[in-house]
Design goal:
alpha+beta; 8-stranded antiparallel sheet; 26% helix; globular
């Protein structure tokens, strides 16, 4: 199986505590997800903690609902946490969220390691569909983060670096 990586980073003009408070609240995931994915949180009153299980539904392809269940690991407030897919569309999905104080605010780093199912067909799907869809999702996420943390009417173009690895 081919593993792929995606990295995104941006600096927001807010202190670490405010940024951590936002990202460590699972109900805010909806605010960062494109509406076209039909995101719906299924876990009632989810709380962020080591071992927390969070379930939601997305509708990425032709509106067909996909269940996604993640477990929170490496929970280290306010520096990082990782969500690991236990059930969902990927063979493997591990998304590390890291936060650090920098000049001008807080740096938000996302690193995703993932593998697709279906062997060669999955690699083909990555090349022609999945990679561009993930880039679109993370570009939307970067704009949403900028809109949330920039003063009203002051949102600058997100300072985001997006790299998808693998083939």
């Amino acid at each position: 199986m081919t593993a792929f990586e995606l990295h995104a980073s941006q600096v927001v003009p807010a202190d670490l505590d405010r940024v951590w408070s936002f990202f460590s609240n699972p109900t805010n995931l909806d605010r960062l997800t494109p509406s076209s994915l039909g995101f719906r949180m299924r876990t009632t009153e989810p709380e962020m903690a080591e071992g927390a299980l969070i379930e939601y539904t997305v509708r990425p392809l032709l509106g067909l609902p996909l269940s996604w269940r993640t477990e929170i690991r490496d929970y280290d407030p306010p520096a990082r946490f990782r969500d690991v897919q236990l059930r969902g569309p990927y063979r493997r999905w591990e998304h590390t969220h890291a936060f650090s104080e920098v000049a001008g605010g807080t740096r938000v780093d996302d690193s995703v390691e993932y593998e697709l199912p279906l062997g060669p067909a999955g690699a083909f799907a990555h090349r022609w569909v999945v990679r561009s869809e993930l880039e679109r999702i993370f570009s939307h996420r970067a704009r949403a983060i900028a809109d949330i943390f920039e003063p009203a009417g002051q949102a600058a173009e997100p300072r985001t670096v997006l790299v998808a690895g693998g083939t």
